[in-house]
Design brief:
By secondary structure, the protein is mainly alpha-helical. It has 9 helices and no strands. The protein has one domain. It is 84% helix and 0% strand.
C-alpha cells in the first residue's frame, strides 16, 4: 500500500501546485448553479423542485472538466511507461489515481453542495440525503472517468471524446442521486436509492480500474 499512498500524495501535490486547475471544477459548479435562479426566476417552489436535478447535473459536468488530464501528464513525460512496468498491479495504480481525482475534484463538490442547495431553496430535510448521495455518487464519477481518460489517452480532442464516452455511463448515478434527494423531500424512502448508489460504487471499484488498466497498456504499447 505504500507505493499507492505515495502515488496519491504525488498527484495531490501536483494538483495543489496547479491551483487554478484544482479550483476549476468547484468554480464551474458554483457559477453554473448560481445562474439557475436568474434563468428560471426567483420562485422558491420552482427552485426547490429543480434543486436536486440541477445540483447533480452540474456536479456531473464539473467532474468532467479535469478527466482529460488524469493520465495525460504521465503519458507525455514517459512516467506512464514506468508505472505500467512497475511491480504494483496497474489496476491499483488506477484506483489511486481515481482517489486523488476524487479528493481534488469530487470532495470539494460534496462540501459545496449544501451551500448551493440553500441558494436553490432546497428544504433542510434534504440536506443530509444530498450529502450522503454525493458521497456515494461522486466516487463513481471519478472511477468511470478513469476508463474514459485511459481510452482517449493520446487522442486529439480527448476532452470531447471523454464526455461522449462517460456521460451515458454517468446517467444511473445521476438518476439515483437526484431521486434519493427527491424521495427525502416527499416523505418517501431515500434508502433504496442510496443503496443503489452504493451498489454502483461497489461495482465500479473493481471493474473500472481493471478496464482502465487494460486501456492504459494498449496506449503505452
Amino acid at each position: 500500500m505504500r507505493p499507492l499512498a505515495a502515488l496519491v500524495a504525488r498527484d495531490l501535490r501536483l494538483a495543489l501546485r496547479q491551483g487554478a486547475d484544482a479550483a476549476m471544477a468547484v468554480l464551474f459548479f458554483v457559477v453554473a448553479v448560481a445562474l439557475f435562479p436568474f434563468g428560471v426566476g426567483p420562485e422558491a417552489n420552482v427552485l426547490a423542485r429543480i434543486a436536486p436535478g440541477v445540483l447533480w447535473v452540474m456536479a456531473l459536468l464539473a467532474a468532467l472538466l479535469s478527466l482529460d488530464r488524469l493520465f495525460l501528464a504521465d503519458y507525455e513525460d514517459g512516467a506512464l511507461e514506468l508505472i505500467v512496468l512497475a511491480p504494483v498491479p496497474l489496476a491499483f495504480v488506477v484506483l489511486a489515481k481515481a482517489l486523488a481525482h476524487w479528493l481534488v475534484a469530487g470532495l470539494p463538490l460534496v462540501l459545496a453542495a449544501p451551500l448551493l442547495a440553500l441558494l436553490l431553496n432546497l428544504p433542510a430535510e434534504g440536506f443530509g440525503t444530498l450529502v450522503g448521495a454525493m458521497l456515494l455518487g461522486t466516487p463513481v464519477l471519478s472511477l468511470i472517468g478513469t476508463v474514459g481518460a485511459a481510452l482517449t489517452l493520446g487522442a486529439r480532442r480527448g476532452g470531447v471524446l471523454i464526455a461522449l464516452l462517460v456521460l451515458p455511463l454517468y446517467i444511473p448515478a445521476l438518476i439515483f442521486g437526484a431521486s434519493a434527494v427527491e424521495a427525502s423531500l416527499s416523505a418517501g424512502a431515500a434508502r433504496p436509492h442510496l443503496l443503489l448508489l452504493g451498489a454502483l460504487l461497489a461495482a465500479a471499484l473493481p471493474l473500472c480500474p481493471l478496464a482502465a488498466s487494460f486501456a492504459l497498456r494498449q496506449a503505452v504499447e
